[in-house]
């Protein structure tokens, strides 16, 4: 018989698996994918999915919160580990492209647009990201590394950039080429 701590760890693991699978499936197929497809991708039963998330809206909201929290952590790490604001911004843009966050944002944001702005948990994490990007943008301007007409809103839009790779081109190659062009265009 499993202990309560083991059950909690198992439940937490199932929840994390479901959220990771939901984010990946949403990126590829959108938010209207069947709950069974998400459960299958997570390697759990549909009953387990519904025990954690009673309906599609709850799952989408949790996936959005997880996505925004990860984005906030990514931005905080880039800021902390980069010697300049410019390098932090370029790291954030590169990591967002590598993680295909634009595809997830395109799938989730239209469904949750009002919720993201009214749910306190979502609003708080979104505000944290917005404030950090605004600070980095201001500092990059001060460094002289970022064109003065580029706004924090511009950077936020670029964080949701979706990059197409041709069937014969590896995705990392496409990311590198597009970001090299993009970053060059952001320089003064």
Summarize this entry quickly:
This protein is mostly helical and 188 residues long.
Describe this protein's structure.
By secondary structure, the chain is an all-alpha fold. It folds into 2 domains: 1-54, Homeodomain-like (Arc Repressor Mutant, subunit A), CATH 1.10.10; 58-186, Tetracycline Repressor, domain 2 (Orthogonal Bundle). It contains 9 helices and no strands. It has helices at 4-29, 35-42, 46-52, 56-81, 85-98, 101-118, 120-143, 152-159, 171-186. Helix 4 runs antiparallel to helix 5 and helix 6 (101-118) crosses helix 7 (120-143). The termini are far apart.
Strand content: under 5%
What is the rounded Rg?
18 Å
Looking at the overall shape, the CATH architecture of the largest domain is Orthogonal Bundle
What's the β-strand tally? 0
Q: Give unreliable regions as ranges.
A: none
The main sheet comes to: none
Mean pLDDT: 88
Q: What sort of overall outline do the alpha carbons produce when their principal axes are compared?
A: globular
Question: Could you give the distance between the termini?
Answer: 64 Å
**Top-tier CATH class of the largest domain:** Mainly Alpha
């Amino acid at each position: 018989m499993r202990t309560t701590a083991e059950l909690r760890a198992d439940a937490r693991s199932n929840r994390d698996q479901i959220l990771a699978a939901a984010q990946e499936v949403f990126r590829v197929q959108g938010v209207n994918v069947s709950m069974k497809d998400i459960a299958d991708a997570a390697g759990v039963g549909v009953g387990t999915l519904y025990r954690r998330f009673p309906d599609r809206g709850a799952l989408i909201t949790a996936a959005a919160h997880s996505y925004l929290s990860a984005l906030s952590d990514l931005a905080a790490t880039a800021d902390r580990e980069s010697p300049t604001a410019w390098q932090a911004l370029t790291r954030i843009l590169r990591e967002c492209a590598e993680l295909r966050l634009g595809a997830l944002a395109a799938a989730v944001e239209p469904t949750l647009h009002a919720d993201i702005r009214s749910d306190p948990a979502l609003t708080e994490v979104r505000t944290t990201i917005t404030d950090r990007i605004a600070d980095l943008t201001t500092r990059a301007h001060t460094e002289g590394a970022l064109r003065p007409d580029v706004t924090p809103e511009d950077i936020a839009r670029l964080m949701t950039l979706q990059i197409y790779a041709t069937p014969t081109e590896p995705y990392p190659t496409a990311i590198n080429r597009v970001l090299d062009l993009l970053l060059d265009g952001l320089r003064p």
